[in-house]
Design a protein that fits this description.
This protein is 44% helix and 20% strand. It has 198 residues and is an alpha/beta fold. The chain folds into two domains: 55 residues, no CATH class; 133 residues, Nucleotidyltransferase, domain 5 (2-Layer Sandwich), CATH 3.30.420.
């Protein structure tokens, strides 16, 4: 059952290359293509119920999502690496190339904000964020003041985003413990990666 035009593709007399190979390979099987009927509304309702039960199970569980972030800025550009690890081995990696010039500290804040927004969008309740930027972690912890107006604006937005989580903690980690996020950030800031503009 499919809405895709596979029947037309496989039964064309002038197919070439791989499509011809697939047509020959599949011809030995008794395959009949039929149009897919309408999707019943109950399927959507079951899907919503299933997602709700997963979310309820996760709220009761004592776990945290782990976010590793790093920002990078150089002559070629700036970008961020974001790695979000969730329950059951879920791993989301993002490499973001910024469409604007940013300092290294701005890139670090942009990486943290992008990661927090991703975790919020996924519905994480508890978030442990890791960054190798001592300035950012100390400013968020309230140990350093953000005197620069841009840094103060970034800090203010992070403080607002913190309220989206029941538990939020940002810790400083050495660069060698943040290698994967660092590689993603350097990849896009060098102009070699095809990251998403932010």
């Amino acid at each position: 059952m499919t809405d895709l035009p596979i029947r037309k593709v496989l039964q064309k007399p002038d197919v070439a290359g791989r499509m011809a190979q697939w047509a020959v390979e599949l011809s030995e099987f008794d395959i009949h293509c039929e149009p897919r009927g309408p999707i019943k509304g109950q399927i959507y309702a079951n899907f919503v119920v299933e997602l709700s039960s997963i979310a309820t199970h996760q709220e009761g569980a004592d776990f945290r999502w782990v976010l590793s972030v790093d920002g990078s800025s150089n002559q070629q550009g700036s970008g961020a690496g974001v790695i979000l690890e969730g329950p059951d081995g879920l791993l989301i990696e993002q490499a973001l190339r910024f469409a604007f010039k940013a300092s290294n500290n701005q890139a670090e804040y942009e990486a943290l904000i992008a990661g927090m927004l991703l975790a919020k969008e996924i519905g994480a309740n508890g978030l442990l964020a890791k960054s190798d930027s001592l300035l950012v972690t100390d400013q968020v912890a309230g140990e350093y003041q953000a005197k620069n107006p841009q840094m103060a604006a970034y800090l203010g937005y992070v403080q607002i985003l913190k309220e989206s989580f029941e538990v939020f903690e940002l810790v400083h980690v050495p660069k060698e413990q943040n290698v994967q996020a660092d590689l993603l950030a350097k990849l896009v800031s060098s102009g070699k990666g095809a990251g998403r503009g932010w």
